[in-house]
Structure formats: structure tokens, C-alpha cells
């Protein structure tokens, strides 16, 4: 019967099963929980300003762009992680658990960091849309839209991580 270890990173729970088979140590990585992303979006009534229907539609489209950044980043960086590491097995002549766990954590960290970097950068640029100096106004002085609309940029790739290898023999 093997042994099981658990650890967490960014809300993701990992479980590593380890057992000795003849002259090898084998470990299998399991991802027990997916990333959970919660996004709070404002609605036009949360903004203490007067706006016409165009202004209302602009504010709604602004929040839709922000939500789309989270959705796209989740699908590119977070959703694939589980499939890339869940069930990965490593068998070595020496202890495999630590090597496998370190590799899994590095994989999650790399993708989580890309997610955070992209979301933060894009949201900073999208936020400029709501700067009052960028608003356009109708003849009644109501917010009619904005002179600045940001289109989210391309999503950078995650650099390839080192292959999963057995530890060097001492």
C-alpha cells in the first residue's frame, strides 16, 4: 500500500500517491480541486453619475470587456493546468514524490502568474475607460459614452517548463 501526501497552492489541492515497486519509487499527482475565479462586476446604477441610454450601454459594454478578460485568461491559463498535470506519474530509482510535487507546483505557479499578469495589465487599461476625463456628454450634460475604448491585447504564451525527470542519482 502506498502513502499519500497533500499540499495546496492558490486554492488548488494536490495529492501525491507514492509507492515502491520492485526497485523503483513511483508517484502519481492528482489535482483535487480546480481553480475558482470569482469576479464582481458593477452595474450602471452603482455609478453615482447621470447618463443617457448610450452612457448606460457604454458602461455595460465596459464591464463586459472586463469580464471577457477574466474569461479568456481563465480558458488560456488556468483551465488547461488540471489536464496537463492530473494523473502524471513518475517512477524513478530514487524517491519520486518530491520531484513530482515540485514539478506540479511549478506548473501551476507559472500558469497562475501568467493569468494574474494578463488580467491585471488588461484591467488597468480597461479602467481608463471610466476616467471622467474620457467621458463624452450629450447636450443635457449626461454621460453619453467615452472617447476612449480599450480592446484587450494578445495573450502571451507560458514559457515551456522543464520536462519532468527523475532526480539525479547520488
What would you note in describing this structure?
- By secondary structure, the protein is an alpha+beta fold.
- It has one domain.
- The protein is 38% helix and 21% strand.
- It contains 2 helices and 6 strands.
- The protein has a 4-stranded antiparallel beta sheet with strand order 1-2-3-4, with helices on one face. A two-stranded antiparallel ribbon has the order 5-6.
- Helix 1 packs antiparallel against helix 2.
- The protein is rod-shaped and about 80 Å long.
- The two termini are 27 Å apart.
- The relative contact order is 0.19.
Keywords:
alpha+beta; 170 residues; 21% strand; rod-shaped; four-stranded antiparallel beta sheet
Short characterization:
With 170 residues, this protein is an alpha+beta fold. 38% of the residues lie in helices and 21% in strands.
Amino acid at each position: 500500500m502506498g502513502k499519500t501526501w497533500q499540499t495546496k497552492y492558490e486554492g488548488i489541492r494536490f495529492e501525491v500517491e507514492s509507492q515502491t515497486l520492485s526497485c523503483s519509487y513511483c508517484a502519481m499527482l492528482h489535482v483535487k480541486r480546480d481553480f475558482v475565479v470569482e469576479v464582481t462586476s458593477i452595474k450602471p446604477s452603482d455609478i453615482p453619475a447621470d447618463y443617457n441610454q448610450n452612457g448606460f450601454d457604454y458602461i455595460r459594454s465596459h464591464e463586459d470587456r472586463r469580464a471577457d478578460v477574466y474569461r479568456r485568461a481563465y480558458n488560456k491559463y488556468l483551465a488547461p493546468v488540471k489536464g496537463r498535470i492530473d494523473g502524471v506519474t513518475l517512477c524513478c530509482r530514487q524517491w519520486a514524490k518530491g520531484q513530482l510535487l515540485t514539478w506540479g507546483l511549478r506548473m501551476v505557479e507559472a500558469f497562475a502568474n501568467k493569468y494574474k499578469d494578463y488580467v491585471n495589465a488588461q484591467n488597468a487599461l480597461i479602467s481608463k475607460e471610466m476616467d471622467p476625463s474620457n467621458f463624452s456628454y450629450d447636450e443635457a450634460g449626461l454621460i453619453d459614452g467615452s472617447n476612449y475604448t480599450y480592446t484587450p491585447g494578445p495573450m502571451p504564451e507560458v514559457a515551456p517548463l522543464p520536462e519532468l525527470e527523475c532526480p539525479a542519482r547520488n
